[in-house]
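User: Some background: our group keeps a shared notebook of sequences we're curious about, and every so often someone picks one and asks for a predicted structure to add to the entry. Today it's my turn. The entry only has the sequence so far, pasted here. Could you supply the structure so I can complete it?
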Amino acid sequence: MIINFFVNGKKREIEADPLDRLLDILRDELHLTGTKEGCGEGECGACTVFMNNKLVNSCLVPAMHLDGAHIVTIDGLRNFDFFKKIQKSYADNGAVQCGFCTPGFVMSTINFLREYSNRNVTDDEIKDAFAGNICRCTGFEKIIAAIKELHAMNLEIPEKFYG
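Assistant: Of course. Here's the predicted structure to add to the notebook entry:
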């Protein structure tokens, strides 16, 4: 089937099997390798992207749901100022070790900062918001520290990244 959709603001047309995974399309067809495959079952969060402005696990999205969709990957966010601040906070807080889970955590951080802006948050709320992301290296204390630091900055994150 022919699929027309947008990835990081650019119109794309690809031919894919209806059950091809978005993750494979991004990595193998479009060579956007920032999105990682961890579990392949939607449990680890390494493959998290925005689809139509909502977080999804790209390993669970079949191609048949992509026509007309707007996908934003971590590769498409690198030039935004808020992304650079997130990157710095993660590094400064030691929240990155192997880096494999980091793209998914960063995407979830962006979503968290949107949803929880302008209000106090507890550690439990942070933990709940990141329940779909797994890190096997750092534990979560350093990641939570980075998220708290970023939340205190009141970063301005656009509702839509492109268009």
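Suggested note for the entry: The mean pLDDT is 94. Helices lie at 22-29, 81-92, 102-115, 123-129, 141-153.
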